[in-house]
Amino acid sequence: MVRPRPRLLDFTKTPSHLQFNKYVLTGYRPVSTAHECVRSLFYMHNELGNIYSHGIPFFLFLVLLPFSIPWREVDSIWIGVVHYLACLSPTVGSVLYHVFMNHVGGEHVYDTLLSLDMFGVCLVNTLGALPIIHITLLCFPTVQQAALLVYIFLSAYGIYCATTARTNVLRLRAFVWQVMFRFSLFLFRVYGSGAGSPDSLRLFVIMDSLAMLGGLVNVIQIPERFVPGLFDNWGNSHQIMHVMVICSIIYLHWGTLEDLTWVKNYQCPAE
Ligand SMILES: [Zn+2]
């Protein structure tokens, strides 16, 4: 027997922990069991766009990325593995968060899922940067090892901040220092002795710009702020951020591929 789809709720009727965007007025799923959350993949509601805008790229990345990584040319296999996991990580947590956020477990389940979503974003920041650090400091092995360790240590602190933050602004702030660390690497490539393809830098700068712009759009809730209710199902700030995150991952992938191809013909200058 096909069960009828549940009646969707307005903003004021949804539980308070799900009232995070007052400009999305309709289309809220009622509190649901895990099975009912999964069934919501097949009817329209205001989280469907969020689920599929990360769900479809997840499967595409999972299947296609291994074919585009030049495994034989990568000097250390860990770079390829870390890069692959980095590209997958933000979409996994995000899909789980958006599918099950209205679970009957309430605010506790919601907070856990939100932390998982944030953890995925932290992971792409952290893992995605390791190949960049590795290649930039290729000719300074001691500094390279130290920088990788410092970055992992600081990332653990960033993960703690991002997963325990209570507001979007605080969550965004947890990522700022990672962006600054990467920016200092880019400066070392341009003005110092950092290694790396001249073409990858542009791709990495676009990557960070897209990610930050996406985060900003999500915080300021544009365009739905101007016409509340019009973007309930499609085109709201959170979906725009999702698309920008996917574009950012694609630029990370292109930049890393560019570096990996470049580095195999590179010799560090003699002392
Ligand atoms: Zn999301």
TrEMBL record:
The keyword DNA repair does not apply. GO terms for molecular function: metal ion binding; signaling receptor activity. It is found in: Membrane. Its main location: membrane. InterPro entries: AdipoR/HlyIII-related (IPR004254). Zn(2+) binds at H98, H238, H242. The chain crosses the membrane at residues 51-71, 77-100, 112-137, 143-162, 174-191, 203-220, 240-257. This is Progestin and adipoQ receptor family member 4. It comes from Hippocampus comes. The lineage of its organism: Eukaryota, Metazoa, Chordata, Craniata, Vertebrata.
